[in-house]
Structure formats: structure tokens, C-alpha cells
Amino acid sequence: MKFRVFLFVLALSVQNIAIAGLDEANAAYDKNDYASALKEFKPLALLGNAVAQNKLGVMYSAGRGVQKDDNQAADWFRKAAEQGNSRGQFNLGVMYATGRGVP
């Protein structure tokens, strides 16, 4: 039982860190500081944060802070979309509609 409580508390603290990182990443992105935004979004996206995954897709799609790469953009949009992120779903749909980064 103590182990379950520990895991629950750990999960909550990781979630709070992720939210803080997301706020910092969005603030950097909004200031066109794409290098800082990338440093914040990437680890969150790799941990499975759908909002960060979608934002990385946007960055790759537009070439903001990274080299423009439609394949990478579609991959990140797909990861976000598969988690039910509506922006990721929309953006992936646009990639399919325009034939960018997808078969």
C-alpha cells in the first residue's frame, strides 16, 4: 500500500513538473525563442505529452528552431493525435490533405 501511495505522489509531482515545463516552453515559443522552446518541448514530447508533441510538429512543419521536415512534423502530429489531442488530429489531417510528410 505504501508503494502505491509513493507512486501516486511521484506521478503527481512529475505531472506538475511537466506542466511547468510546458508553460516555459509556450512562453519561449511565443517570444520566438525557438531554441529554448525546443529544449523544453522535446523532453516532454518524448515522455508522451501530447501538447508538446503537437507543438514539435508545428515547429518541424514551419521550420521554427529546427530544419523544416514534413516527415518529422507528421510523426509528431500522429503521436499527439493518437492520444486524442484535437490539434494534433487537425494538423495530421492537414498533412494528409496536402500530401506533406505522409504517403
State the main characteristics.
103 residues; mainly alpha
Number of helices: 5
> Helicity range of the residues?
over 70%
- Average pLDDT, to the nearest integer? 88
As a whole number of angstroms, the C-alpha radius of gyration is 15 Å
Order of helices and strands: HHHHH
Low-confidence stretches: 9-17
The protein's oligomeric status is single chain
How many DSSP-defined strands? 0
Verbal overview:
- This protein is mostly helical and 103 residues long.
- 79% of the residues lie in helices and 0% in strands.
- The chain contains 5 helices and no strands.
- Helix 1 (2-30) packs antiparallel against helix 2 (34-46).
- The radius of gyration is 15 Å and the shape is globular.
Helix and strand layout, with pairings?
Elements: H1 2-30, H2 34-46, H3 50-62, H4 70-82, H5 86-98
In short:
By secondary structure, the chain is mainly alpha-helical. The protein is 79% helix and 0% strand. The longest helix is centred in the first third of the chain and has 29 residues, at 2-30.
